[in-house]
Amino acid sequence: MSAATASAPGDQQPAGLSMAQIEQVRTQLQSDIEMLQSSIQRLQYAQEGFGESMLAVSRLPTNNQDNSLLVPLSSSMYVPGRLSDPDHVLVDVGTGFFIEMRPKKAQDYFKRKHDYIQVEIDKLQKVLYDKLLTRQQINGIIQMHLQQQQQQQQQQK
Amino acid sequence: MAPDLNKKLEDEVEKYRQTQNDMKKFVTQQQQLFITKTENEFVKQEFENLDSEANIYKLVGPVLVKQELGEGKETVEKRLVYCEGELKRLASLMKDTEKKLEIHREVISKIQQQIATNK
Which InterPro entries match (chain A) (predicted)? Predict the structure, then answer.
């Protein structure tokens, strides 16, 4: 047996960690990745909400147009009505507060929120990408080690 | 001697688990506070961009109540101060709990060593 193959399993890897430690790192990485992915999903869902609000406000009739509508009284009954003040909308800004705004301001608000979330999503995407790369590298190291072990076992036969 | 030590070990591990549970609760509380704080900061920002003529409303149960911008700003500010206070308190609590965990770990490891040497 050559000196290179006379080594026990779990010895020092090129990365400087033992096999068990690498496994630990990989498990931690996996759970980090899953958490990041689920966070990004939740952010995208919230962002969609703001996008829809923006759309809804843009569809509001102006004063000169016909502003009759149907008001739901229950899930199966509607009553005809008219939008009394299409110039103002109440926007839920969080913690139970609503601000009366002009439709244009409301659209700006929703766009701002939408863009802010996009910035946060981009930050998370970057971190996620780095973690995915690291996971790939670690998988490569584990593969290599397994192959080394197999070769050792072959040679010992 | 050995059964005593084992019992001691069990007790100490149980204490460690309880402290860990406490820690988890603190982390959850901290996350919740963080969310509330961020939400209030958003509202504060929006209020700052309004002029004094703007109308704001507060949701109290099923009722939307008209409020003065000044009042709204005050409410949000008070909430923010409360959140920050709670976060500070939690942070120091968590530091202490972390120290407790460390002490537990040391005691457990000592007992384990004793058990090992007694065999």
Answer: PFD_alpha_archaea (IPR011599), Prefoldin (IPR009053), Prefoldin_subunit_alpha (IPR004127)
